[in-house]
Amino acid sequence: MKPGIHPEYRPVVFRDRAAGFAFLTRSTATSDRTIEWEDGETYPVIDVEISSASHAFYTGTARVLDTAGRVERFERRYGKRGER
Q: Are 43 and 24 in contact (CB under 8 A)?
């Protein structure tokens, strides 16, 4: 890497306010706000809208929406599961 052209890579806390979840990782992202972490150190904090703690895919609350009867049309055309 060329010196002086890359952003600083440092520990940063990402916080999902909706789920009350935060994690410490390394990033080049910057923030003016800081937070005191569990280890007593102060780190920059970045608030995010969605994380693995609040995303429907990871929490198991994801639903398949059938807006146009596609499942029924498929079953009429090709038969239901388990039928021969």
A: yes
Distances in whole angstroms, Cα of residue 38 to Cα of each of 21, 24, 32, 63: 13, 10, 20, 36
List Cβ neighbours of 27 (8 Å cut-off, separation of 6 or more). Answer: 9, 10, 12, 14, 46
Report how far apart the first and last C-alpha atoms of the chain are (Å, whole number). Answer: 62
Cβ neighbours for 37, distance < 8 A, ≥ 6 positions apart: 13, 24, 43
Other residues' Cβ atoms within 10 Å of the Cβ of residue 13: 23
Q: Which amino acid is at 74?
A: F
Residues of the chain whose pLDDT is less than 70?
Answer: 55-68, 82-84
- pLDDT of res. 63: 66
* Nearest alpha-carbon partner for 52 in 24, 21, 11: 21
AA identity, residue 3? P
